[in-house]
């Protein structure tokens, strides 16, 4: 055996070990590089995915173009999850737009209601019950200062004032008329005063005693409508006050005419 052969036999294990070590590190390096390239490629593919084949897009004419259905099968599980999250986000955006539209509409309605309230407070600064009380007080003063009202006693005048205020309430409620303070006072002096005198004459005819006059006064003054008259007295009162109501309705018709 030659000296060269002996050297090769001695060095052969070391060379083999060296080759194995080099091969191991080279394999790990190639494996890591392959994994990194695969991950980058997949990420690149997902980044271009939503804006390319698998999402809705807008055409040249502005119409929506639906995505193809075959694209879903080529997505990875992670991509499908993210696709679902994107779609949920888009739905939330659309829902937010609808809610904002409803909020804007409600704000407009609130603004209209505030303007309506402002106009009501301007033209009718008093509530209906306050206006009714004001009408009754104005009518009482009018009767006290009227020479024509002296033929009625105090109880009858109270019934007349109560009847006028009740009729005023019915007029503005049934006809949806809104009076300013000046218009209300004018209406009381020119229209309700005639009605009150007519009712006073009717009470003197319908009531056969002071007790019945008190009953009629309580009936006219009751804002709740719980006070009741006997059937006969109520029928007599309705009979004598119907002409008064018709006269007032004619006056209201004249007020509604333009000019």
What do you see in this structure?
By secondary structure, the chain is mostly helical. Among the domains are: 73-121; 126-256, no CATH class. The protein has seven helices and two strands, in the order αββαααααα. It has helices at 3-48, 77-123, 128-144, 154-174, 181-206, 210-221, 231-256; strands at residues 57-58, 64-65. Strands 1-2 form a two-stranded antiparallel ribbon. A hairpin with a 5-residue loop joins strand 1 (57-58) and strand 2 (64-65). Helix 3 (128-144) crosses helix 5 and helix 4 (154-174) runs parallel beside helix 6 (210-221). The longest helix has 47 residues, at 77-123. It is rod-shaped. The relative contact order is 0.05.
Structure classification: mainly alpha
Number of helices: 7
* Largest pleated sheet: 2 strands, antiparallel
Cα Rg? 48 Å
Please provide the count of β strands.
2
Would you list the SSEs in sequence order as H and E?
Answer: HEEHHHHHH
Physical arrangement of strands within the biggest beta sheet: 1-2
Binned strand content: under 5%
Q: How far is it from the N-terminal to the C-terminal residue, by CA?
A: 142 Å
Q: State the helicity in percent bands.
A: over 70%
Uncertain regions spanning at least 5 consecutive residues: 44-54
Mean pLDDT: 76
The dominant shape is: rod-shaped
